[in-house]
Design a protein that fits this description.
- The chain is mainly beta and about 70 residues long.
- Helices cover about 0% and strands about 55% of the residues.
- It is built from no helices and seven strands.
- A four-stranded antiparallel beta sheet has the order 4-3-6-7, with no helix packed on it. The chain has a three-stranded antiparallel beta sheet with strand order 1-2-5, with no helix packed on it.
- Strand 3 and strand 4 form a beta hairpin.
């Protein structure tokens, strides 16, 4: 689960013990963020909108939507 959602500053993962890579994509498919491991993702520089967050764990890919607002 992504929390808080919606957000205007940052989000983090709740209930996910680990992740190797985190990717965030715009709705048009453009990669807007990438990081190794879990940690807060800063979104305060991103335009408002809906984004797809992809977390790669050991052999699995989890996808969720995050709403970034002003």
């Amino acid at each position: 689960e992504l929390t808080p959602n919606p957000t205007s500053s940052k989000f983090s993962f709740r209930g996910l013990p680990n992740a190797e890579n985190i990717y965030v994509f715009s709705m048009s498919g453009e990669k807007v963020h990438q990081q190794n491991g879990l940690g807060d993702v800063q979104v305060d520089e991103w335009p408002p909108g809906v984004y797809i967050v992809e977390a790669q764990t050991s052999g699995n890919i989890l996808r969720e939507r995050i709403v970034v607002c002003d």
